Amino acid sequence: MQVEVTDSEEGKDVVNERGDKIGIVSEVRHGTAYVEPDPGITDEIKAKLGWGDVDDDNYPLQEARVREITGDEIRLQEL
Questions:
Q1: Which residue blocks in 1-79 are alpha helix, DSSP H?
Q2: Residue 33 lies in a domain
Q3: Which in 36, 67, 69, 70 has the greatest CB count within 10 A?
Q4: Residue 65: CA atoms inside 13 Å, Cβ hemisphere, count?
Q5: Number of folded domains that form the chain
Q6: Residue 18 domain flag
Q7: Domain boundaries, position 17
Q8: Domain assignment present for 1
Q9: In what order do the strands lie in the sheet with 13-15?
């Protein structure tokens, strides 16, 4: 099942298949979520306010890895 990533996902936690937080969505560009692993509190606040930007420490999230998107997080599936 394909899950559509939108700008409203910025600031959400990204959790693995076990429910462990692995990062936050720092920004969404053209339907691709960029994940910042292990963000500091400042980065989390900026992302939740939509002030995030992509830098060398952010990684694109492959849509095929997304199992579901809830109000608070993006849940990944196992490969």
A1: 41-48
A2: yes
A3: 36
A4: 15
A5: 1
A6: yes
A7: 7-76
A8: no
A9: 59-60, 32-37, 21-29, 13-15, 73-76, 66-69
Q: Give, as one character, the DSSP assignment of residue 62.
A: P
Residue 26 is classified by DSSP as E
Q: What is the DSSP letter of 35?
A: E
Using alpha carbons, select from 74, 76, 31, 29 the residue that is nearest to residue 54.
Answer: 29
Q: Are 65 and 3 in contact (CB under 8 A)?
A: no
Both structure tokens of 53: 């930007």
Decide if 15 contacts 71 (C-beta within 8 A). Answer: no
Inside any domain, residue 2? no
Instruction: Give the chain's radius of gyration (CA, Å).
Output: 11
Kindly report the pTM of this predicted structure. Answer: 0.80
Q: What CATH number does residue 24 fall under?
A: 2.30.30
